[in-house]
Design a protein that fits this description.
- This protein is mainly beta.
- 0% of the residues lie in helices and 53% in strands.
- The strands form 3 sheets. Strands 1, 3, 5, 7, 8, 10 and 12 form a 7-stranded mixed beta sheet that branches.
- A hairpin with a 4-residue loop joins strand 13 and strand 14.
Length: 181
């Protein structure tokens, strides 16, 4: 239980016989910092913020994954290599809520103006939302962010306003992070 604005940091691996239960629940005020693997576990989360930001992208793969309530999630994104922190599982249990991506730490810049990165498998993709939409900042550029669940897997789409006057305002500086200018 992570309650009353508390936090838990997991930097070590946890490993056990396939199918053990690992439950992280809270009152929507606590933060679970996950920086390593929970191997072979049936993981259930709800009512927490899952923060995986540590400047490294990672696929957190569980035996099974379920949501007892919605969670907020903060992730690392490596646009240059097309990877981001994500949750995957061999199977999905009950999803009584959503994974709401509320923060993104952009580690690098994309090679192209449009970059698509897989975030959620078919069993989870319909239970992903995001509040990151208008602008996310990388070291140099800024990106419009959207989530697309229409395909086989859920994908985040990062679109850089194009330099050269083709942005919505026609201003070349729209493609860049304000601090760069």
């Amino acid at each position: 239980d992570i309650k009353n604005k508390g936090s838990t940091l997991l930097k070590d691996n946890i490993n056990g016989v396939t199918g053990y239960n690992f439950n992280v629940i809270g009152d929507n005020t606590g933060v679970f910092y996950l920086q390593n693997d929970i191997k072979n576990a049936n993981v259930s989360m709800g009512g927490i913020t899952l923060n995986t930001i540590n400047n490294i992208t990672h696929n957190y793969n569980f035996n099974s994954f379920s949501l007892s309530d919605s969670i907020n999630m903060a992730v690392d994104v490596d646009l240059a290599n097309g990877t981001m922190d994500r949750i995957s599982a061999d199977s999905f249990g009950q999803l009584n809520g959503n994974v709401n991506v509320v923060a993104m730490n952009l580690l690098s810049d994309a090679k192209n103006d449009l970059t698509t990165i897989e975030f959620a498998q078919n069993g989870l993709k319909d239970n992903v939302t995001t509040t990151v939409s208008e602008v996310a900042y990388s070291p140099i550029y800024k990106y419009n962010v959207s989530y697309d669940k229409s395909g086989e897997n859920g994908m985040f789409v990062f679109a850089r306003p194009t330099a050269g006057g083709t942005s919505s305002t026609g201003n070349e500086s729209d493609a860049f992070k304000p601090a760069v200018l």
